[in-house]
What does this fold into?
Amino acid sequence: METSTPVIFEERENQIHRKGESPFNIDCNRDSLAGAISQRACVFCGSRVVLYPIADALHLVHGPIGCAVYTWDIRGALSSGPELHRLSFSTDLQEKDVIFGGEKKLYKALNELIDLHGPKAAFVYSTCIVGIIGDDLEAVCRKVSAEKKIPVIPVQSEGLKGNKREGYNAACKALFRLVGTGETDNISPYSLNILGDFNLAGEIWLIRDYFKRMGVEVVANITGDGRIADIKRAHGAKLNVVQCSGSTMDLANMMEETYGIPHIRVSYFGVEDMAQALYDVANYFGDSQMIEKTKELVKDELKVLYPELKKYKKALEGKKAAIYVGGSFKAFSLVKALRHLGMKVVMVGSQTGTKEDYAELEQITDPGTIIVDDTNPLELSQFIKEKGVDLFIGGVKERPIAYKLGVGFCDHNHERKIGLEGFEGMLNFAKEVYNTVMSPVWRFVPRNTTGDVKNV
Amino acid sequence: MLLKHTTDEIKERNALSVNPAKTCQPIGAMYAALGIHGCLPHSHGSQGCYAYHRSALTRHYKEPVIAATSAFTEGASVFGGQANLLQSIDNIFTVYNPAVIAVHTTCLSETIGDDLPQIINKARTEGKIPEGKYVIHTNTPSYVGSHVTGFSNMTRAMVDYFSEYNGSKNKIVNLIPGFVEPSDMEEMKRLAAAMGIKTIMFPDTSKVLNGPMTGKYKMFPDGGVTIEELKMTGSSIGTIALGPFASGAAAKALDVKCKVRCEILDLPIGLHATDAFIDQLRCMANVNVPDSINFERGQMLDIIADMHQYFYGKRVGLVGDPDQILALAKFLVSIDMQPVYMVTGTPAGKKFEQDLREITAEVPGEVKIKVPGDMFLFHQWIKNEPVDLLIGNTYVKYIARDEDIPFIRHGFPILDRVGHSYFPTVGYRGGMRLLEKILNALLDRKDRDATDIEFELVM
Ligand code: SF4
Ligand code: SF4
It folds into this structure.
């Protein structure tokens, strides 16, 4: 069945804004409409995403089997050492547990697993059903923690409490219980924690290297390639550098309140934002030598990058892009990065953006751009067709829709396989965008028999 | 060594599952529901589960997967999800206009005890379900069974809601294909058609989850069994259910409801199981098997004969769903291979385990079977004594890599290869493909490991 008229839920009208057509007043952070084919996920998903990259911890999902299976190693958060985070542990609740409670089972499972794997800490994720049957996670964790002498931390991530954003918050609370429990000797006055980077495709290693070249010590990765011992001493760092608006902001705030550690918000995507991130850090420490080194670093990197980028820009000039990502902070960088490639963003949206985020997006986009909160496949395909999009940037559920429509796609979500952060990442991004947008396969699309293809 | 945390010392575990060999009911129900034409699967629960199910199916099929959710919040868990579902139904028919909404529950709505038939009735009396449209349901708590159970439940719901006897028998055979690929469903239909038999297949995800690229996004693709056909199933001469675990319940329900006799067979994987399927079709429809099918059978047999020396004595580890494991084990034994380790996450029961024991009675050495079991245990067995070949879903690849064992992807989910949705492994042709896969895996390994002296051109 095909729909030619725009299909928009009346209730959703205010969650869609067309720049220049009406005063900006987008509605967001609403619960998804019952019956909508939302692309959103749950609290548990949010918590899992944030904590999962901590590689030397045990991650036990307390609930029925599904919640654990669907989060089993589906994200490429790389570890340079232990791989415990890539296994799937579930209490696999059965009917009798649901009736009589799952605490005993949880206690046993924790014991067995800790004995077997000797993790540095354990995270126990609560799922919807655990919230309903009322297991006292806190008590079980306390008991096991006392017996096994490692931190055992409950994550209050019952899915139904909201969307991913609440999950980020639950994860931050769990992390905060670790922070402040380690020694902080021998930490440099020029030191920071990296927050909100998950080391997809090894990206955090690149960022760490930049900081190293500037003479800055990274105390803890939170959480990409993360280690429990580092997180425990994260309060010894002098600065928190927070990427990805939603996920670890709460932790930064908590650390600021309790330990007086200030934070800056950064993005490692795109040329300007990456450079800005490094300058902000250097300026924060105010060390003239460091500032010099940073300038040097950026200059070196750009010297290599710019000539390369130009090739792609020539081909991509004027092409149209649509963006639909989880958090909207990422969208800012993407809009800018695409502009660098000469492309026009005609639609941008996110699952969980805030009003301020959307306001900022409306600032930096061109008139006519569609700004949308919590959309669905029908709307998406409408927008793509209406705007004649050449490139879609999104996640797993959007990919096949783009392909069916014969539109190039770039995964900017947690499933990406190529590092997109940093200066190097910008080049990767350009290559990926170029390869998909200019791919000859789109010439086979029935509605699109012309069109220019690769020539670089 | 990704699974370096797997120890070879095996301890009894009973409080948890490590690297599970199953997933939860709703995804099976969602998959089955996608096999009805114009159907929007609906997850009654909070939106996380449904997002996961859609993502998992999307990854497996590389196709857009649609479904809706009641989007529970905390309020719903206190007051019940009735208001959410009513609003959903209303919204969905207004905006997406499907032919039918197939509702399944989640652990959450099961635990709070929502009464779906009552809510659906209320929707009907309140006029939220337009004339000629339908809302059907099934219960899919994941703390019971597995994704296979969910598939079975939704398939059965199709019978419960639609099948009716219209007073006279049609010369039609119902086919319930089991939790298999769209390509497998297509192949079963092709075989029946080649015998001149009219069939109704339900559910039928061919042309839904293996559709073409057209430059258009179709929310409701062309394939799927229609409501009209589902109604007619009550007047068919018989039902062939393939795979007792995924298809048995619906077949029996149809027998009870409309007196349509049913035959429950193994999935037609391998020579004997396909023979049984063809033979049953022949008997039920009272037709002759055409030469073309005999020819295919002969071709499959030919491959087995030509290459039998490579199958002999090879030890195989199987992970998968009960229907698949049973059929595969029989097939492997029939070509002289040795399925020595078998694990399914689905709690398939003692009888199933016994059946597997009988099938493998002649296999030398100890045959290890765990029902329900997980991949951690499976891996531990292999560490203690390796096998020559692994067959299972994508997650088995960790073990294959760590232990350096040839591996064939089969079952659900396959997240890292294409082909499964286009090329069947059922029927004689599917059997030929399976044989080819097995041979490729074994012979590639032989080539790789051969010394220069042993390395052979002709094999
Ligand atoms: S709560 Fe139940 S239905 Fe939802 S993902 Fe978990 S196991 Fe599956
Ligand atoms: S919504 Fe609840 S039950 Fe479903 S996946 Fe999320 S935590 Fe699990």
